[in-house]
Amino acid sequence: MKYSRLIGKTIRQQSGNQTIEGYSLLLRGGYIHVLGQGLITYLPMGQKVMDKLKHLISTEMHELGGEEFLAPLVNPISIWHKSGRSGMKENPLVTFKDVQGHTLVLAPTHEEAAVELARSTVLSYRDLPLFIYQFQTKFRDEQRTRLGLVRAKEFIMKDAYSFHSSYADLNNFFPKVFNAYVRIFKKCNVPILPAESGVGIMGGSKAYEFLFPHEQGRDVVMVCPSCGYKANRSVAVGVKLSKPEALRGLSQVETDGNLDLVSLAETLNVPLSKLIKPRVYESEEGPVMAVVRGDYDVSLDKLAAVLGFSVSTPAKKETLKKYKLLPGYMSPAFPPEGVRVIVDELVVNTPNLVLGNNKGGTHYINANFGRDFELPPSADIAQLNQGDLCFDCGKELEAHNAIEMGNIFKLDDYYTKRMRFSFENAKGQKVFPQMGAYGLGLGRLITCIAEANRDEQGLVWPLELAPYTYFVMGIGRSSRISGAVDELVQELGEDSVLVDDRIESIGVKFRDAALIGIPLRIVVGRRYLENDELELKDRKTGVKWFIPKERLKQELKIWREQHVPSI
Question: 67 pLDDT exceeds 70?
Fold first, then answer.
């Protein structure tokens, strides 16, 4: 490919503040173009990277017996009604009507479509297990897109689905996909934090996610450096400590209800650990008040596990007014009728707390549950903090920010049962298949690959993913040099070579070659005219060397072998 004809040239200066340098390099290197907020165009080189990534992933899926399919982006709303997910509040569906008046959905995920496909294929236990995967566009109407491809409205996902005749078979297959994901990330040269995670709106019984450690990541993984325990903060379990102290006498003090938690703590001259943090959520069962200590946050995944249903939407002002819940003074000690209260176990075990009276004007200080107020229902519903202790070994946990790249779910019969998809087992009984779902966000993964494989000059693509293997350029106007460049293109293959044929300075060409990150630069210049030698430079190591042109084939074979990752 001639650089002069390539759509998407390098950009000297990138406008805006990109918090992930790898994403900025994708923009500057001519791999992607921003069409609108959360809407990204893959330019030709970006598309080549995408195609190679798909091939790498497909190889692993085929090893597990996977068959590729392609479900429509647009789904009928009826299948979402069947699964019970048509009314999702956390990520509302984007719907529209066709010319016949049928309601359709821009699918944010394809579990429902996969169940319908399996229904048409699986008639008995002999048709199981079934493992299918696809690369398909998804659309989620994100309110807050961020970090370019990391959280976009429209994105490409590899989503796979497995169906099994028994839970034991699903349980045996699940780690095989886990290990395939580990191999994929290793081939991409991306460090990962595999961690237990919540099932969220997906449902099911178990989930793991694969995260890229990064300070800009919104996910937080709790890691035990001693025993290796890893879990997303939303589901991580550990020991939350409360310092023992003598119980003080209960009293009331006047307070300003407009104060936030930090200001209230400063006014009362107490640490946040002495305050409570009530959070009220909407649910189909009525409002739910979740209460954690002031220095912790509510875990919606843990709360859902306790309640038996998901909550995510903060209560509206109308709800608070209806149930006489007064912001700034809400308290589990005085719960209004019709409000379900769950208190984190640490709140119950912390002495001498500050509590609101749910009326206004005053707060109780030195309040103790079991002495001053009845013990409310309690459970572990708080996200852990750094420094909390590991349940397994007792060492302090560390908190690591990370970006989620993929996840795997044991869905059990969550979808098949709701959607009434069954098969006949060997005994002639109707059974609901056990199901797994396995996702990889390709845009997120490409961003993380770029972030993990770069230096101060630009991108450094792994050999398997680079848009081109060789960056070839001639220095000088000699017809012999241009002829040698043409010969190299033919010898190496046009699909593997990007030829810099621009009329630019040598410095500009060298800088662009480094920015684009193609693995091997080959220069035909003065030494070729004098000694028939080519200049080679490895982008990753920076090593430069010269070889006679007739030895190129043997040299490239050795070079490629050195760049194949050991799995």
Answer: yes
